[in-house]
Amino acid sequence: MKLIKKNKNIVAAFLLFTILTFVLIHRLSVPQDFIEVTVVEGDTLSELAERFAGDTPADRWIREVAALNNLTDSAIIAGEELKLPAYFELEADDTRLVLAEEGE
User: Fold this and answer.
1) Cα atoms in the 13 Å half-sphere on the side-chain side of 71
2) Cβ atoms within 10 A of the Cβ of 67, count?
């Protein structure tokens, strides 16, 4: 305890560094841009990954979709709005996609 009191500035700097590291890791692990799609009958997360994941591995992409949408399992329902990580260039004539920024 005496050592901590003696080096309180170093301990405070270490704690601040640790907190900022966790914040940065979180921000880098969750995509900042996403698209919103409406699930249609027959859609699955695996099928959506084939269409929208680009070069991202399907299992990682599915985990990101689950995190963005607070999903507890892989079940999705027709008519449900899903946020998908935006890892690809949009086609100009694709009317199903709507760009959104985080927090909208």
Assistant:
1) 19
2) 14
pLDDT at 92: 46
Count Cβ atoms below 10 Å from residue 86 Cβ, excluding itself.
17
Closest C-alpha among 98, 83, 79, 94 to residue 41:
79
User: Among residues 89, 81, 76, which one has the least CA distance to residue 33?
Assistant: 89
Estimate the share of the chain in helix, then strand, then coil, as percent rounded to the nearest 5.
Answer: 45, 15, 40
Q: Where are the alpha helices (DSSP H) in 1-104?
A: 2-6, 8-29, 45-52, 58-69
**Angle at CA 33, nearest 5°, toward 61 and 56?**
25
At 75, which amino acid appears?
Answer: A
- What is the pTM (predicted TM-score) of this model? 0.55
| Percentage of the chain modeled with pLDDT above 70 | 75
